[in-house]
Amino acid sequence: MENVNSLFKNALRVAVAGFGAAIITAPLASTGALAQVAGSDAFNLPEDVSFIMEQAENRNDRRATARVNGNIITGTDIDERLALILAAQEIALPEEEVARVRLQVLRNLIDETLQVQEASAQDMEVTQEDVNSSYERFAVETRGMSVAEMDTYLVSVGSSPRSIKRQIQGELAWERLLRRNVVPFVNVSEGEVTDLWTRLQESRGTTEYRLGEIFLSANSVNSQQVRSNAEQIIAQLRQGGSFVAYARQYSEASSAIVGGDLGWIQLEQLQQPQLEAAAAQMTAGQLVGPLEIPGGYSILLMIDQRQIGMADPRDAVLSLKQISYNFAPGTSQTEAERQGAAFIAAVEAMSGCGTADADAAAVGATTVDNDEITVRQLPEALQGTLLQLSIGQTTPPFGDLTDGIRVLMLCGRDDPQETAGPSVDQIMGQIEDERINRRAQRYLRDLRRDAVIEYN
């Protein structure tokens, strides 16, 4: 169970890591893409629904707070959590999107409250000392800040330490509940793991994919509304929104806690023909969806592709020297062209990395070294060029009059070793994680069903 336990050890760190992406996560819950939802026939619903009373335009505003089994979620709780999300966005969200995020925040806070209440009822209450310790560890180890600096940052974006600590409390409570009530009852046989490992070995040399997924559950009653929501999310992503942020906030799949990242998989591991067919046609960086699958809709992002068991040239570790020439403020176009041409000529005359520092200084250029950077860490436009270089050669110059012009000189390269793919233990961990998440979804669904929730 080592891999399963590591999931929970890292859950809090992942959930609150990276204010640049999104602090808020959906609770660890679901593999909703695999859930079968009963149709509307179970309710004997009419084809033409006619409401007796019209919905008030400001209904969402009036239902901004809630009482969950007696515990109050205030408007301030929602505002502070919402502020974290908005601060993490690279683009300003339209008013209707903010309203939709606000409703999701309320749902997340309700789930957190239910998780904390359940842990307390089972004598696994999370103490304030536990929360403060985790908060301090996150501030220092993950953000490189003191607690005081983290407090100041949160206040500066319109939130507060209390909001993050509330989320930490929910994460710790859920971890404890799953450890006791779910993890011990999940079993994976050696036979099914061995069978999957064998199939993977037989597929050596074929392509595997690193995918991101946002899954939204739907049934026959709300399918159109959920699809519309998915289309709005896609529109925001295409305008520059963070996929990780939206996955953490909206996705109902188990991968939400890690920003929707499914890791390296083969297409058949998706277990959905619609997703397999779409992913097979995608290229790195491509976004597709919404894709209708049993139980709802999925949005897919192709993060990367590679050959199973084969070394990926982009994993080569390079030793690079950046040689830069900056133009003085006010330099005319003509003079910049003359200086640039002289710099390029000087670079072409260089005899490799050994004399590059002195040669660069002679023409007023500067150098910066990086001896441990992989090809895939570099902009895509540079990756192919660098893979074709020999030691001592440089890329074509790039830049402009504002930032100056630069070249990268290759000073060394360590090629990657071939990999055998996931081990038996890793495969077992993946299957266990999936089954834990299915049970966790059902567990949370039961808590919601039994809850007494009053909206204000």
From TrEMBL:
Domain PpiC: residue ranges: 206-304
UniProt GO molecular function: peptidyl-prolyl cis-trans isomerase activity
Keyword Transport: no
Domain of life: Bacteria
Keywords from the UniProt entry: Chaperone, Isomerase, Periplasm, Rotamase, Signal
Leader peptide range in chain numbering: 1-35
Pfam families: Rotamase, SurA_N
Record protein name field: Parvulin-like PPIase
Taxonomic placement: Bacteria, Pseudomonadati, Pseudomonadota, Alphaproteobacteria, Sphingomonadales
